[in-house]
Amino acid sequence: MRREAREAAYTEFVAARQTHLRRIAYAICGDWAQADDLLQNALVKLYVAWPRVRRDGREEAYVRQIMVRSNIDESRRPWRREQPGLAAGDAAARTGLPFEERSALFEALQDLPVMQRKTVVLRHWLGLSVEETAQELDISVGTVKSHTSRALDTLQVALTPEGN
Amino acid sequence: MDIDLRERLDASFGDGPEHRTLETRVTAGRRALRTRQLGVAAGAVAAAAVVTIGVVAMQDSSDDRSDKTPVAPSPSETADPTVLPVDDSWRAGCGHAGQDTCEALLTELPPVLILEDGTAARITDDVQIFQGVDDPVSTPAVESVAVETQFQGLTRWWLVSRQANGTVVAEQMDPALSSVGFDEWVAGLDDPARKPGERITLPPL
Question: Stretch A15-20: mean pLDDT, rounded?
């Protein structure tokens, strides 16, 4: 594949899907700067693997899988990349929304253990099946079911108004 | 709750801040691809690289210099910002369980860092430096260096500074996108109205 054609197709895909893909990253890490790093890392890998992934028609699944399999522990990556205009420590800029505008559901999601959070995102937001979720996270079907069950119980409690 | 959970999750947060430019995305991909290709051909490249890799000792830092062949440093040039040692202590943060590969991290780090003792260093011997200015930023308690580098096939101007708290901040400029030369770019680094380029921040090293 010629470089021009490769980059044109790659750019078209990124322009069309980067917002959705970064929202997935944000849903699993809760921080826009880290979500942007997760996406960028996955997109770099996609560029390298583009001919093969494009041929298989798996561009979005490929990026998503890299992101959701990433260890999102902040300590593993010592550097942070910033875009011009984003002041360090500016919480509103880093999250994209003032904290109070993120819903209680999103906050409850972020409070879940990371694997429970990932299974909820894949199963109940993106609509993947149990089997697809297991494959995406490289865990067993049974583990997906147990993570999902516990996560939904927790979310249910967190979102039930007191007194009900 | 499960019935409308998808819609509620989708509505529970926004789209976030602006994206990096598509050019930035593509450039990062090109660098990674080039790194991989270089890795595959490492054996063949290594012999040739020994001949050409070195550090420029530029007596003349004019921007329109056409000869950008790096030359080996001499002991008397060690204070020159174009003559920087190699420090690979950053490798402690990669290549181990749960960490990125060092190859991946290499594509993200600035090619020059400022160490704890305030000295600047190249992250690998493959980084070539064509010209540089020591301490271009006059802010007190900030160590900084501005350099023109070539690394992984890309020529960039870098401003790397180490803050008083040990944080290292680096920002880059593609010379092809600049309307001014290196010297003028360096001279403008102290301008408070200057619009910074993409920045990379590292915690205390």
Answer: 96
